[in-house]
Amino acid sequence: MDSWVNSAEILGSDLPLELSGTGNRRALLMDALREAVRSGRLAPGTRLPPYRSLAADLGLARNTVADAYAELVAEGWLAARQGSGTRVAERAAPVTPVHRPRQPERVARPVHDLVQGQPDPSVFPRTAWLASARRALAAAPDDAFGPGDPHGRPELRRALAGYLARVRGVRATPDRIVLCSGAAHGLRLLAEVVGGPWAAEEYGLPFHRELLASHGVGTRPLGVDADGARVDGLTRRDRAVLLTPAHQFPTGGPLHPARRAAVVDWARATGGLVVEDDYDGEFRYDRQPVGAVQGLDPEHVVLVGSVSKSLSPALRIGWMVLPQRLVAPVVAAKGEREQFSSATEQLTLADFVESGAYDRQVRRMRQRHRRRRDQLVAALERRAPHVRVTGIAAGLHAVVELPPGSERSVVRAAAWQGLAVEGLGDYLHPGAEDASRGPGDSRGPHGPGGPRGAHAGGAGAVPAADASLVPHRDGLVVGYATPAESAYPEALDALCRSLPPAAPPAATPAPAPPPPPAAP
Length: 520
Known about the structure:
Elements: E1 9-12, E2 15-18, H1 25-38, H2 51-58, H3 62-75, E3 78-81, E4 85-88, E5 112-113, H4 126-139, H5 154-168, E6 177-180, H6 183-194, E7 198-201, H7 206-214, E8 219-222, E9 224-225, E10 228-229, E11 240-243, H8 257-270, E12 273-277, E13 301-306, E14 318-321, H9 324-334, H10 343-354, H11 357-383, E15 388-390, E16 397-402, H12 407-416, E17 419-420, E18 422-423, H13 430-435, E19 474-479, H14 488-498
Parallel strand pairs: 5-17, 7-8, 7-11, 11-12, 12-13
Antiparallel strand pairs: 1-2, 3-4, 6-14, 9-10, 13-14, 15-16, 16-19, 18-19
């Protein structure tokens, strides 16, 4: 394709055209003529110059202009009549000028990607998935190709009941499992059925909080420390609490056993609901498996999971393991026909699980992610030994702790290095920031300048109950699952170049002068 740029206004046979951009010359000319008609500069009935004349004025081939005229005639912009030349087509009403908003400048794509939450798409098990799809389709009953059941395919619900019991300690029969298109879809349905307000960990996905808020469910933050969420902050007013007990997102670490028992006791005493987001419970490296909280009390805990981390977010298959009393209301909220998850993909996943291919894929990904994590830790130990890395016993990301007040500048420095990475403050609940300020304090928890991250504000926040929360720390949330193998070392190099240098050692105070000699 030709490349041609001419941004000057050219007067061709009294025809003002603005020709700009790069690409095919005929397409550029057609765009200019359409815009002239659309804006009203070329009124209906206006006669255009002969294509030979316009071609000479614009420095184009005659066939280029002739083809542009012919195509615009076919589209209805122009009209051609033997003996009267080519004119702007007549309209029943004058064309109203269209004022287009100025397009934002295109932001350059990062060269390196260490944003959490997405596995490397190149490692999807295509061969094994195709084998499962063939077997599943060959054995599929006829009703699999009819209207969908809002419960989801029974084959997949049976397979998940066995798998989750074996791997995550879940207590459920297939009739308590409702399939959905992912964790977000599950939360949306629970928000409709349960209502609000909810409590949520002070660090978590802003998207989840915004989703709940869009359904009229406000959230208020629970403090998070080394033992996970501080569930002692729950009250009778809370209808539900959203937790990530297997590996607190994004700070890391499992919910302490005493707190697991305490949150179940709260749910039993108040009739509240524990919503357990099991987003990466299968990926653990340096600790024993931690079973799901759902196993402690299936009547007061909902387990929400999906294959977005273990297989691919493109599959759009998730599940909810529900208390018996919520199954019918959730199915009713979905509607009479399943509109989200493909029945054939559900059947394929059922075979994938029952054949053992899913277990093999999880083991493979666990080994890969552990190797990635070890590379990250080694690179930081070698090139930035002054920073501390936490949350690395499980999951698909780590937290790199930073000096107070440096998070935003480090994220900007990473962008200059072509690296996409997020700050820990991007995940902080806005109510937690409010609680960390004193009366009349207009500063965020890290000094003046307002909220720290792009998600620091937002609708649906309920004021925090505990105003004694400690100031929140600065850090980077570094996802190590996304880059391809060949790109990962360069991404780590860009990360290390973005980090602040070690603080200079404190000056040693000069020794005190000796005391004067005693008087004789």
